[in-house]
Amino acid sequence: MKLTSIKNEDLLLQNIDPDKSIPSSFADLESIAKEKMSAGAFGYVQSGASGEETLRKNVSSFSKYAIVPRFLNDVSNLDTSVTLFGRKYPTPLFIAPVGVQKIAHEDGDIATAKAAAKCGIPFIQSTVSSYSIEEIAEATGDSPKWFQVYWTSQDAEISFSMVKRAEEAGYEAIVLTVDTVMLGWREEDVRNQYSPLKLGFGKANYETDPVFISSLPANDVDSVIQAVADNVYHPTLDWAKVAELKKRTSLPVLLKGILHPKDAKQAIANGIDGIIVSNHGGRQLDGVISSIDALPAVAEAVDGEIPILFDSGIRRGVDVVKAIALGADGVLIGRPFVYGLAAGGQKGVEKVLENFRQEMEVSLSLAGVTNLKDMRDLIIRNP
Ligand SMILES: Cc1cc2nc3c(=O)[nH]c(=O)nc-3n(C[C@H](O)[C@H](O)[C@H](O)COP(=O)(O)O)c2cc1C
Fold this sequence. Notes:
Elements: H1 8-12, H2 26-36, H3 39-46, H4 53-60, E1 65-67, E2 82-84, E3 87-89, E4 93-95, H5 108-119, E5 123-125, H6 133-140, E6 145-149, H7 156-168, E7 174-177, H8 187-192, H9 204-207, H10 210-214, H11 221-231, H12 239-248, E8 253-258, H13 261-269, E9 274-277, H14 291-302, E10 308-310, H15 317-325, E11 330-333, H16 335-367, E12 379-381
Parallel strand pairs: 4-11, 5-6, 6-7, 7-8, 8-9, 9-10, 10-11
Antiparallel strand pairs: 1-12, 2-3
Helix pairs in contact: 2-16, 5-6, 5-16, 13-14, 15-16
The protein binds flavin mononucleotide.
């Protein structure tokens, strides 16, 4: 299924896909995922850090911004494409890096990556994915894929080795996540005593990595899990290490988790190729600014010098349109696709992406624009 522009008459006549197992509203999708997943797994995906203030604000802050449409423009030809690092994509949508996807569905990231490939949407693979870089690459051919890095704290050579593997497997960009120097304070997981890593999820890229394997004291499952836990967070990460990563790869490097305009400026000064405005879906530091509130000031600081991607709180197509209007060049979908995966595997993810695309197209047309950039003049902060 290639995503196609919707025929509006299908919406009018309700000839759209009647598959009730993958509903179009986020709330309905979340309820289905809750039924399908174990309490621990669902809690791990759904919850945020500490009192979940940021988790809530990520969504509610979208209503601070209002679209002021312009009418009487011919909107019969819509162009939703974006070009990033020399590659043109049909939509501004990306799959956010989400680890341990097997906790949502047994097909895990393979299903998500195949759905993304079918829809022409770039798949960003997590360091702690359920399948290895090579397995995902084999399953999806030359569809666009990026690799997200959690800097390995004990031996940076493990990170560099994974980056090299991603390059060799045809991945097209590296995303370094900077907001995860340690795990956020997640009370739901403490309540459920739930650790996906301890259950054996999320180690595929480690147990297939020669540098990681050679660093192990013993090659049994417990040693692997312990070594992943020792390496996955990175309190020592700093700008010098970012510069080191830049030197070790020829791929574009993006920093994920930027919220402060000064960090955006520093990223540009350090030769970084792109940033992702994100607060990790409210899963790291609670009380931080909602991602959508952070976006305008970051966009002003960046002033078009490098691409800005955005995530945290995107629940529907019109949210994508608002994020683009406020300065994003592309948008990462997080929890909605995970719930689609839980509800229906690959088909579930495809349906979620299709719904995003369709609602985004309807929203752009109703705002009176024919391309994404024109949205920038049509948004105000609600009085
Ligand atoms: C279950 C789960 C696992 C995640 N794993 C990762 C990860 O491995 N690496 C990463 O950079 N971000 C990870 N994230 C954060 C997402 O990339 C993204 O920033 C977040 O989901 C956006 O918020 P939203 O889902 O509320 O839209 C994870 C998010 C969730 C929900």
